[in-house]
Amino acid sequence: MIPPLLGVALVLGAFGALFVGLRAARAKLDPELARKLLHLGMGLVSLSLPWIFSTTWPVIVLSSLAALAFLSMRVSSAMKREFGSVLHAVSRESFGEFFYTIGVAALFVLSHGDKLLYSLPLLTLTFADAVAALIGARYGSLRYATSDGIKSVEGSLACFGVAFLCVNIPLLLFSATGRLESLLIALILAFLVMLVEAVAWRGLDNLTIPLAGFALLANFIHLSVPDLVLRLVVVLVLGAFSFAMRRQTTLDDDALLAGILFGFVIWALGGWLWVLAPATLIINDARHGIRADVTQAGYRRHNVHAVESVCLAGLIWVVLAAVYGDPRLPLGIEHPLFFFAYLLSFAIHMAIFEATHAMHVRPRLGRARALVGATLVSWVAIYAPIVAFLSYAHETRAALIASLISLPLISLAVLIFYAVQPGVDDCPMDTPRWVRQGSVALLVSALAAAGLWAAQLATNPLAVS
Questions:
Q1: What is the number of alpha carbons within 13 Å of residue 313 lying toward its C-beta?
Q2: Range with the largest mean pLDDT of 181-185, 204-208, 259-263, 358-362
Q3: Fewest CB atoms within 10 A around its CB: which of 92, 197, 203, 462?
């Protein structure tokens, strides 16, 4: 290992040289090609981090400095003129550079120096997405529309093939994983990466692929062949379920596809108990959809942005639970805070959906009554099955305490959403609404988990050590 400050300087120099080189060649490069070459270059440099740094703080510093540089390319006229064209010459809006810096830093922290677990998700992110875009642009003829633009079957298949190789070859060469196990792991992860690339919104795959890829890989490499085959079967079952729900939900096709992804990751990392909350949300959505006759043209307005908004906080909590604790003991000894925050995030989303729906279909109801009703419906629907299950598992007291703490927090989150969302009475369905809703759920669930952790630490330091 080299001195941390020298390592930071070397990595920053490599990133700077990459930008300077692409800026010099921008007149000869297609904007999409330039952006993907930047993606490849940043990925290759980032792959070196575990061999340069043995502690996390230099990587966090690098990520922060990179994010500030990317921000300056958006707000500073001089930086935008000199280097912004490398990133922003493409017509579509993307925040991928910011998601990328967060994703790499989080992957480094979560991997705890395990070079294989760090490298495989980053290899997949670096090469699969870039190859998909380039192959799709050059050879794509079978095209399909997504919320993030037009994509091609050829590009998606190229993404699958590259992701498969990025997982299978390193597992065979650098791990003790068996050949059949490596094949199954690579097939599952490649399929999921292909779906992520197809539905990811504005570069969000730069965050979800490292996080979910790391957690799934760390989970899968310890599984037997029958367990891995089961996961393939579950993917197919989820696909069939989403197809059957197409005419009975307010979700469009992209959103259903994203739902498959999130549902599989949650089940694979947390087990069936963790699936209850999102399943309740889906059933509630179907209930509203059936009442409103979603088959009529133009009604299915919940797109992939809505699904990503609802599931992102839950994905973060289930990944943390899989990495730092045993998610099958959500209210037991090991890290119950992640499960608490996970349930709260979905309860908040359900309450917001219930409140906005009630105000939209019954405008005379008023915000206060809509808030109370939505909070109670969400609280009962999300927490009653969990309390019942954990009571059977002799965790009644912990389950009841967690559910009672959540009740005022759900109302608080809906009140915050009321305050930050313009035109809330009209039940808006635009992208800024989903960003606000997702941010509120993540913020309140994180603050609640932090507060509960601090309280536990004060009363019993050994319980959370």
A1: 31
A2: 181-185
A3: 462
